[in-house]
Write a structure and sequence with these properties.
The protein has two domains: 75 residues, Glutaredoxin, CATH 3.40.30.10; 118 residues, Glutathione S-transferase Yfyf (Class Pi), Chain A, domain 2, CATH 1.20.1050. 54% of the residues lie in helices and 9% in strands. It is built from nine helices and four strands, in the order βαβαββααααααα. A four-stranded mixed β-sheet has the order 2-1-3-4, covered by helices on one side. Strand 1, helix 1 and strand 2 form a beta-alpha-beta unit. Helix 1 packs parallel to helix 3, helix 1 crosses helix 9 and helix 4 runs parallel beside helix 7.
């Protein structure tokens, strides 16, 4: 049985759950209470010395970092495949995933943190800056989605990397410009996938 050390609000944990759902894999979750620093416990640090979720255990294998976990799952459970076969497209998928991890998710996380503050403590200039940053990412993606259903033709780990924060754009006050027709169609397409619908249900339950 696969075991996932999870904090449900973590977008990195959500990335792994999407892949587990895509591959229809059964797994057990172990809640890691980040709010009470459970990730800093000696037991957890033995699993991941960086003290971060997610961590996945599959029989005797202990893997951490959502990107590494998802590639492991795709190698170990190859059906359906979530990485292209060609080396060029595999590299492109990894580049998009890295871009999501470094230029999309962090900005969304900072924006969410700022919006969670008391009204008199919110920095409106910072909010507008990060909303603009996220729209610029969407503009970049729109160009790359021209003539494609997904970022590297077929649905892949590249698309998975963006989903957790695409799902919260509206609550973050980010509106997808109507001119970004490729992105809008892509988001709608992603929303029709059972894995994404399952994640949405978990987040709103």
């Amino acid at each position: 049985m696969i075991k996932l050390y999870d904090f449900p609000q973590s977008p990195n944990c959500q990335k792994v759950k999407l892949v587990l759902a895509e591959k229809d894999l059964s797994y057990e979750t172990v809640f890691v209470d980040l709010m009470n620093n459970a990730q800093r416990s000696a037991d957890f640090l033995r699993l991941n010395p960086y003290g971060k979720v997610p961590v996945l255990i599959d029989e005797d294998e202990v893997i951490y970092d959502s990107t590494i976990i998802n590639e492991y799952l795709d190698d170990e459970y190859p059906h359906p495949p979530l990485m292209p076969t060609g080396s060029d497209e595999r590299a492109r998928a990894r580049l998009f995933e890295d871009f999501a991890d470094n230029s999309f998710m962090p900005q969304a996380n900072v924006l969410a943190t700022e919006l969670s503050k008391a009204a008199d403590q919110i920095d409106q200039e910072r909010i507008q800056r990060y909303r603009s940053d996220l729209v610029r990412v969407l503009e970049f993606l729109d160009r790359h989605l021209e003539g494609k259903e997904y970022l590297v033709q077929e649905f892949s780990l590249a698309d998975v990397a963006f989903v957790p924060r695409l799902l919260v754009l509206a609550p973050l006050g980010v509106t997808v410009p109507e001119s970004l027709t490729n992105v809008m169609a892509w988001i709608e397409r992603l929303g029709q996938r059972p894995s994404v619908q399952k994640l949405q249900h978990e987040l709103t339950a």
